[in-house]
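Task: sequence design from structure.
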């Protein structure tokens, strides 16, 4: 699946849905996103190991600990995001990428460009969120 793309290529509704060019576009988008997240995680590790919790001032130490906790929570969310990116890359390999996991209908290019890890069409996602709200309100 080595399709060469021009740097300014953007998937279009005028093309066949999930053709090799579109798949290559989304694969590269996902790989770039994952690479950014992994790089950020490495920077976090450096920041945490360099951060000195031996601050003499209690307020400074508390502030640093709070910053570390926030950074760790952010990285945990990003770790989960990397898992979703890997799942999307697997869907590209198995040919199911771009199709709603509930309806098997195309998810839509605009939604995938905005959220390349999407697994539900906009309609299915809205239905899912309405159901969640209904059950949460009970």
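Answer:
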């Amino acid at each position: 699946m080595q399709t060469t793309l021009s740097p300014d290529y953007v998937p279009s509704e005028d093309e066949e849905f999930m053709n090799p060019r579109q798949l290559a576009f989304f694969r590269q988008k996902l790989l770039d996103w994952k690479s950014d997240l992994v790089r950020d995680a490495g920077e976090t590790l450096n920041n945490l190991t360099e951060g000195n919790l031996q601050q003499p001032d209690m307020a400074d130490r508390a502030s640093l600990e709070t910053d570390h906790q926030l950074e760790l929570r952010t990285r945990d969310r990003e770790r989960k995001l990397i898992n979703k990116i890997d799942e999307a890359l697997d869907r590209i390999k198995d040919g199911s990428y771009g199709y709603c996991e509930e309806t098997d209908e195309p998810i839509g290019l605009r939604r995938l460009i905005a959220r390349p890890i999407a697994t539900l069409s906009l309609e299915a996602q809205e239905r899912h969120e309405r159901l969640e709200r209904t059950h949460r309100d009970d």
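The chain has one domain: 20-137.
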